[in-house]
Amino acid sequence: VRPAEKLLILDRDGVINEDSDAYIKSLDEWQPIPGSIEALGHLRQAGYRLCIATNQSGLARGLFQLQDLEQMHQHLAELLRPWDAKIDHIFFCPHGPEDGCDCRKPKPGLFDQIKAHYGQPLDKVFAIGDSGRDLIAARLAGARPVLVLTGKGRKTLASGQFLDVPVFENLLAFSQSLLSKSLDLQ
Ligand SMILES: [Mg+2]
Ligand SMILES: [Zn+2]
Fold first, then answer.
1. CA 12–ligand 1 middle distance (angstroms)
2. Which helix (DSSP H) or strand (DSSP E) does residue 168 occupy?
3. Where in 106-157 does DSSP place strands (E)?
4. 11 included as an active-site residue
5. Is position 13 annotated as part of the catalytic site?
6. How far is the CA of 93 from the centre of ligand 2 (A)?
7. Dihedral through CA 98, CA 99, CA 102, CA 104, nearest 10?
8. What residues flank ion ligand 2 with Cβ within 5 A?
9. Number of neighbouring beta carbons within 10 Å of residue 179
10. CA dist 56 to 68, 126, 175, Å?
C-alpha cells in the first residue's frame, strides 16, 4: 500500500476568492481573499497537492459559461505561478439544486470523485470550507472538515452546528497552523 500523500481539498468561493450572493460570474468578479494566494503557495511548497471542490450552479442557472469558469481558473493559475505553485485539479458541480445530481455539496459526490482520482482514502485529508454544505460533504466522505471565517464562514460558525470543527480566521491562518504543525494530522 502506498502511503497516503499530502492532499488538501478546498472550497473556492469564500475560501480562495471573495464570495458573492449574486455568484461569481466573471473574471472581474473573481477577487482573491487577502493572503489566500500566499497560503496556497506555502502549502504547495510544503508538498501538499491542492485540489478544489466547488459548487458552480451558476452554470446550470445560465449566469455564466464554462469558458468564464475556465478564465477564472486560468487567472488563479497565473497568480500561483510566482509561488511555483498550482492547483492540481478542480472538481466542480455544474448542476442546479433541482437537477438531483450527487455532486452538489452537501452531497459527497465531488469528494468521491477526488477519492477515485487520487486513489486514496480521505481520513487524513483536510477539507477547508466556509459553508455548512462544505463541512457536511467533507464529513460524509470521511475527510476532515475545517471552517474558515471568510465568505459565509461567520454565519456558518454562528449556526452552532459545527462546534467540533477546527476554525481559522482565513486560509492563511489555516496554512500557518498546519505548516507549523500546531494542527495535528494524526
Ligand atoms: Mg464557499
Ligand atoms: Zn452536481
1. 6
2. strand 167-168
3. 126-129, 144-148
4. yes
5. yes
6. 4
7. -60
8. 93, 95, 101, 103-104
9. 15
10. 11, 21, 25
What is the torsion angle, in degrees rounded to the nearest 10, for the CA atoms of residue 21, residue 81, residue 10 and residue 51?
Answer: 130
- Rounded to the nearest integer, the mean pLDDT of the chain is 95
Q: How many CA atoms lie within 13 A of 26 on its CB side?
A: 2
106-154 pLDDT, tens digit each: 999 999 999 999 999 999 999 999 999 999 999 999 999 999 999 999 9
- The answer to whether the CB of 44 falls within 8 A of the CB of 80 is yes
| Secondary-structure percent of the chain, ordered helix, strand, coil, rounded to 5 | 35, 15, 50
pLDDT tens string 159-178: 999 999 999 999 999 999 99
pLDDT of 127 reads 98
Sign of CA dihedral 110, 112, 115, 119: negative
C-alpha cell at 132: 455548512
- Express each pLDDT in 73-82 by its tens digit: 999 999 999 9
137 contacts 163 by C-beta, under 8 angstroms: no
Query: Distance from first CA to last CA of the chain, Å, rounded?
Result: 18
Model pTM? 0.95
